[in-house]
Amino acid sequence: MKVLLINGPNLNLLGQRDKNFYGTASIEHILGEVQSMSAELGIQIDYYQSNHEGEIIDYIQTYSPQIDGIVINPGALTHYGLSLRDALLDAGLPVVEVHLSNIHGREDYRRNSVITSLSIGQVAGLGWKGYLYALEGLIEYLKS
């Protein structure tokens, strides 16, 4: 089984961004934890991060035929990334949306997600461990 893990804009700066919302874990730490879990689950993870919506779309279009599902933290693209949404929809794969902070308890504009309606689930507000919960949920979904 193979899963794409995608992070959108500014998530390369995790550990340096507003720690009240995003915590202190670096992206390298999170990826290490995800890789450990994927090894335990016997799955392969391909990771991609970009600050550019078009590059993320190109990545999804290139690799979606070769994978089973997607875990994505779209960052700010969550709220307005309609091209990203279309690329995920066109991929025809199960998607789990993940957010470090609870987007539903933040500013009004952060509460709307253009990704949620095509996702099988969303994990929000559980910090970096949300990536693990999202991956675990996706794998359970794929197995059933």
Classify the fold: give the CATH topology: Rossmann fold
Distance between termini?
A: 13 Å
List how many beta strands DSSP finds.
5
Indicate the overall shape: globular
Can you tell me the CATH superfamily?
Dehydroquinase, class II
Strand order within the widest beta sheet: 2-1-3-4-5
The percent of residues in helical segments reads 40-55%
Question: What would your notes on this structure say?
Answer:
- The model has no long low-confidence stretch (mean pLDDT 95).
- Helix 2 (27-41) packs parallel to helix 6.
- The protein has helices at 19-22, 27-41, 53-63, 77-80, 82-91, 129-143, and strands spanning 2-7, 44-49, 69-73, 95-99, 121-124.
- The longest helix has 15 residues, at 27-41.
- It has a 5-stranded parallel β-sheet, sandwiched between helices.
- The protein has 144 residues and is of the alpha/beta class.
- The chain has one domain: Dehydroquinase, class II (Rossmann fold).
- The protein contains 6 helices and 5 strands; from the N terminus they run E-H-H-E-H-E-H-H-E-E-H.
- The radius of gyration is 14 Å and the shape is globular.
- Helix content is 41%, strand content 18%.
Features:
144 residues; alpha/beta; 5-stranded parallel beta sheet; 41% helix
What layout of secondary structure does this protein have?
Blueprint lengths: L1 E6 L11 H4 L4 H15 L2 E6 L3 H11 L5 E5 L3 H4 L1 H10 L3 E5 L21 E4 L4 H15 L1
Parallel strand pairs: 1-2, 1-3, 3-4, 4-5
Helix pairs in contact: 2-6, 3-5
